[in-house]
Here is the input.
Amino acid sequence: MKRLPRRTFLVGAASCVGAASLFSVTPALADTKDADEVAGKVQGFYDNLTTYQATFKQTYYAKVLDKRQISTGKLAFQKPGLMSFAYDEPNGNRVTSNGKTVKVYEKENEQQYESSVDKSQYPAALAFLMGEGKLKSDFTLRLLDPTTMKFEGGFVLECTPKEASPAYEKVLLYVDGATSQVRRVLILDVQRNRNRFDFDSAVMNEEIPKGTFDFTPPKGTKIIKPN
Here is the structure.
């Protein structure tokens, strides 16, 4: 049985209802608001946060294998640059970052990958959650039609990095129309893989339990540090 390719999206998982059209037919552009205006409101929302905690559902689609994998868990961000993804069992994977290094623990394979943040998709695409990076200066932005993208009542902001990234090609932010909070992030890479995160039960600016961003893998775990 073929396994989903790992590493490209770290701990993989994905579906993209309404997003597959990005690779075939360009969705109609939304005309209700300017992309810079929406990006400014999103940036303002997250710039006012010191911590962010939520549950997540991650859906990863591997194009070559035509396989989809779904995972759930809890995430936490704390400025500046701290990040934690704790995956529910039986997955049991962990992703942590201290702002410089990302550690990806794979329970099933008894391995932990360690790399710099600029080579990892998680912090690269989600930097705005951690108080790093600026949407309007880091990306070329445009609004997609929310009806076409099946996100009525909100905005879908397409973000293309101004500097080419090995981790991803585009990021789509699904923005709540009332609060400017990002409810979903969809990450697309050049291999046409799709990595989607849906956030729920968000808690902002509350103290995060000590040790959340620390993780020591079990004894015997193989540590891999790509060049």
